[in-house]
Design a protein that fits this description.
Helix content: 40-55%
Number of strands: 15
CATH superfamily of the largest domain: HUPs
Distance between the termini: 62 Å
Radius of gyration: 27 Å
Structural class: alpha/beta
CATH class of the largest domain: Alpha Beta
Length: 536
Amino acid sequence: MSKATRGSCLSGLKQLHSTSQRARVLPQQRQQQQQQCHPALQQQCRIVATSAATADVEAAPAAAAAAAAAAAQPTANLVTLLRSRGLLQDVTSEDLEKAAADTCLPIYVGFDPTADSLHLGNLLGIIVLAWAGACGHPPIALCGGATGRVGDPSGRSSERPVLSEAEIQRNIDAIAGTLRTILGRAASQLRVTSDGNVQYSTAPASSSSSSSSSSSSGDAADQVTVLNNLDWFGSMSFLGFLRDIGKYARVGQMLAKESVRSRMESESGISFTEFTYQLLQGYDFVHLAREHGVRVQAGGSDQWGNITAGTDLIRKLMAAEGQEPPQCFGLTFPLLVDSEGRKFGKSTGGAVWLSEAKLSPYKFYQYLFQVTDADVIKFLRMLTFLPLEEIAALEAAMAQPDYVPNTAQKRLAEAVTRFVHGEEGLAQALKATEALRPGAATALDAATLEAIAGDAPSCSLPASQLVGATLIDVMVAAGMLKSKGEVRRLIKGGGVYMNNAKVTEELAVVSGEDLIEGRLLLLAAGKKNKMLVRVE
């Protein structure tokens, strides 16, 4: 598509949005506008203009917009693709598969700002949006600035703690930045051809080092739409909510939702605030269908009740207004669990965060690297963009006697870390992994060790307790082992390392030359018990 045509499509979209803000159009007119403008958006996944500053632009010639719309078609069937990757659990209508093959369908996933970072469990929603964009369906990420103030009861045994306004805004800013960066990276690197072939370039994307600013520039940023539902709920009064939304909800249906029923049967019960959450999420779908042509809402399997609340509300509310409701769909993907049914994405230290500020790329990489053989193939399908043929080859190799252990895990950890943290983050994780590997031949430097200091236990000892002291005394003083006898036995067994070099002498002494740049010493007792010792 030429720049002129692309600009015309954007102008058409902006005109549609501006018009919808001034007055409601007839159903037939709205449908025609969506057919003309939204498919053009879908071919390039261009950003939908939502601010008044960008809405005041000259309208595109109708012929140019229509020509661009006619040329836009999905490059591949999203539903078929998601099913093949294990990313499809339920759909609200079997018609979705045919619609996804013939029509570009804007799709959204919601993310509530319950923390200042998304976690590994949220990654499935991001991946579904990335696949949607690659297949020709424009992805929209929705931050729950309003719903986050209420709290989703789905999958919870108690009510979420109430966050302050400032906390919620900080969380939204952080989450929106993450979504723009990761989805922008996917938009510039991931393609799905008409014959279903996956093309994923590992070259650094232009947006891989972008900040969390909402004014990100460049093609990758233009392909990401991040919205905040507080923009439409913020000005809605309680009476308006009851009149415009509540009147179309049936309490019996609301009580039947699993998220509500399970909480009502628990000791804590459910508050009215949480009870109304499904209506808020349902209205999100209504608003996005009207203003952005959204036709599909995707979410985890625990969101089924909230998603169907949206499709029901679209039908009832628009029919009551004398409009022909568009056919909208919901789809769910499975929750991320391991082979034993435990939630994947939780560690002993809490959630596996996507933000580098909360979890280093090294620790993120290591969590994925430690996936069991029973789970690794499943997670390769769900969490990476590797072609299924390559994953099948890895699965076959795992059954062979000459298979190198953890080859598949390494592929998983590299692919997901690259997607979340970019090439730079992956390089950092690999460098740290090598630096902390006992027996590694890589030369250590202070800068590398300081960079990973937060990822390994550390302590400080005076130079007098290091230089000239036996390694046995140093390891006990550092708290790595309880007694000198334990250290001696481990040395005899070949399990003690100093600066990644195996120690074979029981009476080995630490010299000044052993201190890296005169201030650091890396010790290991076995493969997992490591200690970075600093000179005080």
